[in-house]
Amino acid sequence: MEKLVAYSVVPRFNPAEKERKIRYYAQAQARGVMGIREMADRIQKMCTVTRTDTLAVLTALVDVMCDGLAQGEVVRLGELGAFQVGLKGKGSETVKGFHTGLISKAHINFRPGAELRNALQKLGFMRVPKRKDLAELGPKMDGKEAAEQPAVTEGRVVTEGPAVTEGPGAGERSEEMGD
Fold first, then answer.
1. Whether 130 contacts 11, CB under 8 Å
2. How do residues 129-165 score in pLDDT, each as one tens digit?
3. pTM of the model
4. Which of 9, 7, 4, 65 is nearest to 36 (CA)?
5. Each residue of 20-45: pLDDT tens digit?
6. 163 Cβ partners below 8 Å, 6+ apart?
């Protein structure tokens, strides 16, 4: 079964352009949230480990990762990727003039591993209405209908409305902007 990422088309300014003309870009739309309990349920179905044991391991993983990151370690999770602490702040004119007060906050950098990067290469795309547009449809779409999976036939998505697929080799994109 083809993996499809839902997206809607949104207007944005490209800050690099002097004219600041509006361009239209794809913006990924989440179809839901998979929490730690859902992950444990799915993992349980794939192996002999119980849901309770899986949940315990995933909970401990969070604690171990936080500890490692706090100690300045790069946390590698195999083919998933690596996590590392990064810093944001203001610069100093000299090395001697730098002090920790110039650091405004810490954040987490994630570098995906090979398997995760490869999984992204295999994705297809399905255009969906923006959430605002769905809300304006009111009682015609109660949310359940909007979340239904489309049927995939010969590499094309068959749905009601403006859903289309684009994938590798399915057409050239004139401009791209990440989100």
1. no
2. 887 665 565 555 444 443 444 433 333 343 333 444 4
3. 0.64
4. 65
5. 788 899 999 998 999 999 999 999 99
6. 126, 127, 128, 150, 157
Answer whether 7's CB lies under 8 Å from 128's CB. Answer: yes
Please report, for residues 1, 3, 114, 129, 151, the alpha-carbon distance to residue 121 in angstroms, rounded to integers and kept in the order given.
15, 11, 11, 24, 21
How would you classify residue 54: left for phi > 0, otherwise alpha for psi between -120 and 50, otherwise beta?
alpha
Q: Determine contact, residues 77/64, Cβ cutoff 8 Å.
A: no
How high is the pLDDT of residue 29?
A: 93
DSSP code string of 87-137: EEE---SSSTT--GGGEEEEEEEEEE-HHHHHHHHT-EEEE---HHHHHHH
Contact present, 41 and 51 (Cβ < 8 Å): yes
DSSP, collapsed to helix, strand or coil, labels residue 141 as coil
> How many CB atoms neighbour CB 26 within 10 A?
18
Contact 31, 150 (CB under 8 A): no
User: Hey, how many other C-beta atoms are within 10 angstroms of the C-beta on 125?
Assistant: 18
